[in-house]
Amino acid sequence: MRIFFVLMSAIALSPTLMIASSPSASAGQLGGSATSSSSATEPLFESFMIDFEDFAAGTYIVGDEWAQYGVNISVDSNRNLKGDKQESRPLRLFDSNCSTQGSNKCSGGDYDLATGDAFGTEEQGNVLIIQEDNSKRKDRSNLGNPDDDARGGTITFRFEQAIKDLKLGFLDFDDRDRGEGFIRFYTGIDDTDAAMTFNLSSVEALVNPDFTGDNSMRIFASLDMAIQRLEVEYPGSGAITHLEYSQIAPGGSRNWGDSPDSHMF
């Protein structure tokens, strides 16, 4: 996982929501260097990107790995674990730099999660999936190789404080026969009504228009809407490629004089 962040002045704009569809957009291209504000009265924002590359493929994600950057991740899968009917299937990292043949075959036979030139995208590396339960009766603790669950679920991101300039990449939305998928933005962390909802099947959000189902990649952006919770709900196969957002400096600080010029984690 590489987490880049940039310090930016807060700009007062009317709330807007848009879908990013540039073919050149990818997790690997986002980032920048730190700059200081020219005005002492404007709060500064840290701009983060989480692309899941700091952990090895196959790593299970418990949700607090990025707590130091103000975000916690949880999952509510549509099917629970075989050995514990009350427990959600876990989040896991899947290596999308894979192929349909050769020595680098996609784990779990998930060729629909492959990325790269052959699919009209840049390689996305590790992506976040809900893990399929491929365990056997004699050992329910072993869920098998990384393999996205065929019934999906809801992945939720909760932020310690309001964020803006959100961008999220989603890979392989193709199971519409099981229902639609949605991305929901909430202005309050405990709000019950979403401030805005995207449909995951949006054609306008496609990075690779020749792939509308398997291997499709979409990028959604909430540019100036301040939110504290994000939900990604999908009924089948799929993965989150990366998450980028801006957050006000801790404590609303306006003094970044002691910060290094750039940051990469």
Folded structure, characterized:
The protein has one domain (56-243): Jelly Rolls (Sandwich). The strands form two sheets. Strands 1, 2, 3, 5, 8, 9, 10, 11, 12 and 13 form a ten-stranded antiparallel beta sheet that branches. It has a three-stranded antiparallel beta sheet with strand order 4-6-7, with no helix packed on it. It contains no helices and 13 strands. With 265 residues, the protein is mainly β.
Keyphrases for this structure?
0% helix, mainly beta, three-stranded antiparallel β-sheet, 32% strand, Jelly Rolls, 265 residues, ten-stranded antiparallel β-sheet, disordered N terminus
Count of discrete domains: 1
Beta-strand portion reads 25-35%
Shape: globular
Number of strand segments? 13
Contiguous uncertain segments of 5+ residues: 1-40, 253-265
Q: State the CATH architecture.
A: Sandwich
Topology:
Layout (H helix, E strand, L loop, with lengths): L6 E3 L8 E3 L23 E7 L9 E2 L9 E7 L13 E5 L30 E5 L22 E19 L10 E5 L9 E4 L17 E6 L4 E8 L4 E10 L17
Antiparallel strand pairs: 1-3, 2-11, 3-13, 4-6, 5-8, 6-7, 8-11, 8-12, 8-13, 9-10, 9-12
Précis, in short:
This protein is mainly β. The protein is 0% helix and 32% strand.
